[in-house]
From TrEMBL:
Cross-referenced Gene3D superfamilies: Vaccinia Virus protein VP39 (3.40.50.150)
One GO-annotated biological process of the protein: methylation
Protein name, per record: Class I SAM-dependent methyltransferase
Highest taxon, organism lineage: Bacteria
Location of the Methyltransferase domain: 54-146
Annotated keywords: Methyltransferase, Transferase
SUPFAM superfamilies according to UniProt: S-adenosyl-L-methionine-dependent methyltransferases
One Pfam assignment: Methyltransf_25
Membrane-spanning parts: none
CDD domains: AdoMet_MTases (cd02440)
Length: 213
C-alpha cells in the first residue's frame, strides 16, 4: 500500500496539526526513559555489526531521526504526513526523509538495505488486523540479527484496545500481544520496558526491542 493509505497508519489529522504538534512537543522525548531506550537501541544497532540503514517509521518532525544520525547511524525518516515531513526537512536539512507509510513501499526505499527499524508511537495508528502484514514486510527486508524497536501506549491486561487519541484513531497494545505479533513475523523479543501513566501521560507506555531470527 502506498503512502496516504489509512490502513497503514496515515491520518489527515497529522497534516492539519503538524505545526501545532511540532510547537507543543519540541523534544522527541517526553521522559528520560524514552531517551535511554533510544540510546540502548543505538548500542544494539552498533553491536549487531549488520551494515545498512535505520528506518525511523512514523518519524514526524524528525527529532528521533536527528538523534540517531547524531549517534552516527545511517538513518532515513519515513512518514505518511507531507506536512510533518515539511517540518522535518526544514529543521534537519542535512537528513533524508521519505514520504511513505509503515508498509515501506515507496520506490525511494527499494534499494535500501535495512539494518534496523524504529517505530515510536506510529504503529498505534495502524488497525490491528494490518499490523501482522506490516511486520512480515519488515522481516522480509532484514537479515538475521536485524533490530526492530516498537513503542506505544499499553494496557494492563493482555488485549488490544482502541482509544481516543487526540489526532487520529489509535490502539493500545499489551506488550505480550506485540511480542507475539513480532514473533509470528520472525522477530524474537530481546527486552521490553513499561512506563506507568503519570500526570503528563494518560496511559502506560511500552518499548519492545526484538531481533530478526
Amino acid at each position: 500500500m502506498s503512502a496516504g493509505d489509512d490502513s497503514a497508519g496515515y491520518q489527515p489529522g497529522y497534516d492539519a496539526l503538524a505545526d501545532l504538534c511540532a510547537e507543543t512537543f519540541p523534544s522527541p522525548f517526553s521522559n528520560a526513559l524514552q531517551r535511554r531506550v533510544i540510546e540502548s537501541f543505538v548500542d544494539h544497532v552498533r553491536g549487531s555489526g549488520i551494515p545498512g540503514t535505520v528506518l525511523d517509521v512514523g518519524c514526524g518532525p524528525g527529532g528521533v531521526t536527528a538523534e540517531l544520525a547524531s549517534a552516527g547511524l545511517d538513518v532515513i525518516g519515513v512518514d505518511p504526513s507531507a506536512e510533518m515531513l515539511r517540518i522535518a526537512r526544514s529543521s534537519h536539512a542535512d537528513l533524508r526523509f521519505v514520504l511513505d507509510d509503515a508498509h515501506l513501499t515507496s520506490t525511494e526505499l527499494d534499494d535500501i538495505d535495512v539494518a534496523a527499524i524504529v517505530a515510536r508511537f506510529s504503529l498505534i495508528h495502524v488497525p490491528p488486523a494490518s499490523v501482522p502484514g506490516i511486520l512480515d514486510g519488515w522481516a522480509a527486508r532484514m537479515s538475521s540479527g536485524g533490530i526492530v524497536l516498537v513503542a506505544g501506549q499499553t494496557t494492563d491486561v493482555d488485549e488490544i484496545v482502541e482509544f481516543d487519541h487526540r489526532v487520529a484513531p489509535a490502539w493500545r497494545w499489551h506488550p505480550d500481544r506485540m511480542a507475539a505479533a513480532l514473533a509470528d513475523a520472525g522477530f524474537d523479543e530481546e527486552w521490553r520496558t513499561v512506563k506507568r501513566a503519570d500526570d503528563a501521560h494518560r496511559f502506560a507506555e511500552f518499548h519492545l526491542l526484538a531481533i530478526r531470527r
